[in-house]
């Protein structure tokens, strides 16, 4: 019940911001697939063949009144040109992101376009429990203003306890931040708007069961009219604390983001086959 109430309160806060700050729902919702793009290697240069060799001419000396002259030699056959190396294909990850990965999203089905990151996750042991802290980073790399409530969208989703893996939703709170000794800032748990080119880095903290946090969730479309278990919202992306990244470097600022998915093929009805009347078992 507490989890559902937390999700609903986050949605209400965003709705109030939409009404009070003239924010459009399209500036809150992210409908696209999040993508981590591995930095591609530098293309190998194509080997260049040596220039075509030309034999020096034959010098014929003067003889019996005939002036000296030069006889050209045949030019060697040019070597074939090497085939260029193929261009490196970027490796795309669309889920189970590693901490510190720059995840890009938006610009296709969504009005906003963002770079998202979760990193620097730490566990602080307190009396009768623990607090997990982490940093959330958002950069608006698109032309549209983005509105979010990081403290109501990013949460701890799984904790590995002594009795096994425990799934749930442990949300950031001011009480957890104070228990961990974190200085509260104005944007830690408030709704924020980021204009084009602006970025935000904020530290969050949540009370969790004793153990190792293994998964964090991010509700990218908090206004979706759907529910995933106790969560209100949709298009939830997950970060894994033990994920092995396929590459160790981010692609840099403003990489080329590939289209998340191709257009689905048009469905066509399958014609019903005709069976003779005497075949009573046909089509079963």
General description of the model:
The protein has 284 residues and is mainly beta. It has a domain at 2-38 and 90-240: Immunoglobulin-like (Sandwich), CATH 2.60.40.1240. Helix content is 10%, strand content 34%. It is built from three helices and 17 strands. The chain has helices at residues 2-20, 150-153, 174-179; strands at 35-37, 58-60, 69-71, 92-93, 97-98, 103-106, 113-126, 129-140, 146-148, 154-161, 164-171, 192-194, 199-208, 212-221, 227-228, 231-232, 234-240. The strands form five sheets. The protein has a six-stranded antiparallel β-sheet. It has a five-stranded mixed β-sheet with strand order 5-17-14-10-11. The protein has a two-stranded antiparallel sheet with strand order 2-3. The two termini are 48 Å apart. The relative contact order is 0.20.
How do the strands and helices of this protein lay out in sequence?
Blueprint: H1 2-20, E1 35-37, E2 58-60, E3 69-71, E4 92-93, E5 97-98, E6 103-106, E7 113-126, E8 129-140, E9 146-148, H2 150-153, E10 154-161, E11 164-171, H3 174-179, E12 192-194, E13 199-208, E14 212-221, E15 227-228, E16 231-232, E17 234-240
Parallel strand pairs: 5-17
Antiparallel strand pairs: 1-4, 1-6, 2-3, 6-7, 7-8, 8-13, 9-12, 10-11, 10-14, 14-17, 15-16
